[in-house]
Amino acid sequence: MTRAHAPGKAILFGEHAVVFGRPAIAVPVHQVRATAEVSDLPKAPAGAVFIESDATGTRAWLTDLPEDDPLRRVTQSTLERFPAADRPAFSIHVTSTIPIASGLGSGAAVSVAIARAVSQHLGQPLTTETVSALAFDVERLHHGTPSGIDNTVISYESPAYFVRGQPIERIKVGVPFDLLIGDTGIPAPTAKAVASVRRRWEADRETVDRLFDSIGDIVGRARTAIESGHVTALGSFMNENQTLLAEMGVSSPELDRLIDAALGAGASGAKLSGGGMGGNMIAVVTPDRAQAIAVALLEAGATRAFATQVGP
Ligand code: PMV
Question: How confident is the model at residue 189 (pLDDT cuts 50, 70, 90)?
């Protein structure tokens, strides 16, 4: 049996604007992860693949799934890189602790875990670059115009400064800092949020481009702060970024409630993370306040709150 994992991710700054060419910063979140296990099926005909995913309730032979099924797509594009002859039959079992449609990159993490486990099982692990490219291809099924930030950060497992279409720039974290992640429990498909931002942009490009530019500016300042270890500045950058995201229409009453609760309990800054309209929020916290802020998030309706540290 071959097993591979992929972490979740959180976008610290720059979501949505990144779809329109501005930079963003994201970090891997190792407290949650997707796992794929590949096992031989000696009794099945050569080349057959059975796939099982607890998260989506899938239990099917690969070729019985719709062609645009994400599990089928990533498995097939991985297999295309191996000679079809003498390929053993195998099963793939996917499990994930990353909530679906919550802004933590569950779709990309599942793709990365499958591409890694299958290629390792067949004796030739794919490079990180290829794994990321395969996951990007699947992200396109989730929403038409992905920036590529999810698959990149999740494959490289490194804090990253990201500009669409450009190679990943890893960020050196000057001084580690702590985040709390709070889940509204409301699933929010990224496609919906991305489409709504595009509609606003099409209706009033000048205004929305200005919002994107302001976000890009925050991302630049945040990168400098992270690299130079000036982490006390990050909270106010998050608050600024959240104000702009709210103006863009991608916050929600539930997100606002969790953000207010985190700030009220002493977080230095907080914002939605990912597509928004539900899903998760993040807060920069100091270790002495983390526990109290986590409690405040749960009291304000978070279905889950957990801490993660952004480190080198
Ligand atoms: O909701 P998530 O985790 O898939 O993040 C989406 C981030 C966006 O900037 C809104 C879209 C994208 O493709 O970058």
Answer: confident
